[in-house]
Design a protein that fits this description.
There is one protein chain. The chain has 348 residues and is an alpha+beta fold. It folds into two domains: 234 residues, Regulatory protein AraC (Jelly Rolls); 111 residues, Arc Repressor Mutant, subunit A. It has 13 helices and 15 strands. Strands 1-5-4-3-13-8-11-14-15 form a nine-stranded mixed β-sheet, sandwiched between helices. A four-stranded antiparallel β-sheet has the order 6-12-9-10, with no helix packed on it. A two-stranded parallel sheet has the order 2-7. A hairpin with a 6-residue loop joins strand 3 and strand 4. Helix 1 runs parallel beside helix 5 and helix 3 runs antiparallel to helix 4.
């Protein structure tokens, strides 16, 4: 059974028509497009005890939208009548979403701009990125794969993807509301069969929810992100890159500042999931200093404060800011100020 057949088997089972009283429908489809619904909606994760779930939108079988959710909160599929070209409610969400155009096309309005995704394309969209979906009477099948934070950590921990995608996921985990981002992926070679095989197995495991399924799902998600990283072309605008790098830089600086006594570049690599040379490049570009120079400046600044506003001895201050070698601390301090720490303290 191929991916399209598997999805349609699910969407065509136990179909029921939407009613305003059917509360699961609006949340499930993100289709708060009814005229009485105003403003931007924020959708929460549908199944609190799950790390991953998937929506199926099937425009292939009729003039209606047939849809289903995997794993199912209850056994049903959903039939929704709509006007051609109708827009869903503007919405954000508390999860990262990966949309996959299995067949046909997907037309979305993202941050007020119309974006078209063709068959085989993906869209990775952040939680705070406002968007809408156009409902079109065409022969299309769209999958929306939704992740909790735990899944994003797992993807980054496996080191299977590129720095650009890691930066996107890292920024998403920061939950900065002012950062709005998405990535458009286009297949660069004959990857369709391999990707559809992954998604067919993923749909099966999510829908059946059998013992051991979460481990299989995790492995398939890793494989999907590896394919996206190696066999798809993707693009971020210069403004998106600037915004994303600024958010990550601020978070890295905050972490170094709060942990300056003991922080190492190896620790940063483990926490933020980047290669070690990435931090030097980013910090050098932003400040003109290397990572070591930046850390040294932070430690010496804290030492200056303690010299002027505490009764700690100079040896205690050196150790408190991260220098176990008192002689090395003296050397760095004199290079910066031209006087010893004791002479600096006497200036008060």
């Amino acid at each position: 059974m191929n991916l399209i057949e598997r999805c349609q088997k699910i969407t065509l089972s136990d179909c029921q028509t939407t009613e305003s009283s059917f509360s699961l429908g609006e949340r499930f489809l993100n289709t708060g497009f009814l005229e009485h619904v105003q403003g931007v909606k924020h959708y929460q994760f549908a199944l609190e005890n799950r790390k991953t779930y998937l929506y199926i939108w099937d425009f292939c079988s009729s003039d209606d939208l047939l849809a289903a959710m995997c794993p199912p909160e209850e056994n049903f599929s959903f039939c929704c009548h709509f006007e051609d070209g109708q827009l869903t409610q503007p919405h954000t969400q508390d999860f990262v979403e990966l949309a996959y155009v299995v067949k046909g096309e997907l037309h979305q309005k993202i941050l007020g701009k119309d974006v078209f995704f063709q068959e085989g394309d993906f869209c990775l969209i952040d939680r705070n990125c406002e968007h809408q979906d156009y409902l079109a009477k065409n022969d299309s099948l769209i999958l929306f794969l939704c992740f909790k934070n735990d899944v994003l950590h797992e993807v980054m921990n496996e080191n299977i993807t590129t720095n650009t995608i890691i930066a996107f996921l890292q920024a998403a985990l920061m939950e900065q509301k002012e950062l709005k981002q998405y990535i458009h992926f286009k297949p660069s070679d004959n990857v369709k069969e391999e990707m559809e095989e992954c998604f067919s197995l993923l749909v099966k495991e999510l829908y059946e929810s059998k013992t051991g399924g979460p481990l299989i799902v995790k492995g398939l998600i890793m494989r999907i992100f590896r394919l996206l990283s190696t066999r798809y072309e993707f693009y971020l605008s210069k403004q998106q890159k600037r915004d994303m790098n600024s958010a990550i830089f601020e978070e890295i600086c905050r972490y170094i500042e709060n942990n300056s006594k003991t922080v190492t570049i190896q620790e940063l690599s483990k926490i933020f999931h980047f290669q070690e040379d990435y931090f030097n490049r980013l910090i050098k570009k932003r400040t003109g200093s290397t990572y070591c120079e930046m850390l040294q400046d932070i430690r010496l600044y804290k030492a200056e404060k303690l010299l002027l506003h505490s009764d700690m001895t100079i040896s205690e201050i050196a150790e408190e800011v991260g220098y176990k070698n008192k002689g090395y601390f003296y050397k760095l301090f004199e290079l910066k100020h031209g006087i010893t720490p004791a002479e600096y303290r006497k200036q008060l």
